[in-house]
Design brief:
The structure is a homodimer of 144-residue chains. With 144 residues, the first copy, chain A, is α+β, with helices and mostly antiparallel strands. Chain A has three helices and six strands, in the order βββαββααβ. In chain A, α1 crosses α2 (110-120). The first copy, chain A, is globular, with a radius of gyration of 18 Å.
């Protein structure tokens, strides 16, 4: 069944061993291997928190690209490195997330990036779902 | 460089076309293809919101498995189907998420599952990072 992704998204995961190794799927994409660190898991795939960072950084990155392109900027290289720092006590979610955007462009200034980063808060769905107590820092480096 | 995943997680994504197609990576796992729906993207991979659901459902599922095993329960089959429903206005994050756990076991009762679901709120990191305004409903079906 096809679903309208502008309204609803669907995923499934299935346990594939006797510990915490899952195979995850959505909409015909290649399955994603998901696991946890030893001793509970066997490190056979992405952890849930890594998938969370991939979700947040791709949402942030995509929103930035859409805005920069609307500003008629060229992008020759674009990557996002994310680091999440966990709380020491349960539940051990992130209390701080650093998002580092590295890009290459002939016509993007620091002011353009600061403006674009300010605008993504209104359009990035994943960012909007985070508890306000989590500190998210977005930094950037522009190469020519 | 190896990082201590109990304290810090790290991911990277790199743009691989002129639209919104990214390749995502963490800790030597197989790269994950990430993209957005047309016209902005080309549907060449998981959307950020699908990765978000995979993150949340694997975290929820793993926490449940850990608790059920501590209760000395057998699990012969375990899957988690998640549906996220987006807000109509920007930012179009989920305002409701349904998590359906389907499992097969000879010794798990509905009461056991209700108890386990109640306990995961204290140990699932991803669940703990969500804004409280997002409604998360966890349901289950037990087959023998």
């Amino acid at each position: 069944m096809t679903i309208d992704k502008s309204k609803e998204l669907k995923t499934s995961i299935q346990l594939v061993n006797q510990k915490l190794h899952f195979e995850g799927k959505a909409d015909g994409n290649n399955p994603v291997s998901i696991d946890y660190t030893p001793p509970l898991g066997d490190n056979l795939g992405y952890t849930s928190l890594e998938l969370f960072l991939l979700s947040l950084s791709s949402c942030t990155g995509s929103a930035l690209l859409v805005i920069l392109r609307k500003m008629e900027k060229n992008i020759d290289f674009f990557e996002v490195i994310s680091n999440g720092y966990r709380r020491a006590e349960h539940p051990t979610g992130f209390n701080k997330i650093n998002i580092q955007v590295n890009l290459k462009s002939g016509n993007i200034s620091s002011q353009d990036m600061t403006k674009a980063i300010d605008l993504i808060k209104d359009i990035c769905p994943v960012l909007s779902m985070l508890d306000a107590k989590i500190k998210v820092v977005i930094e950037f480096k522009i190469a020519v």
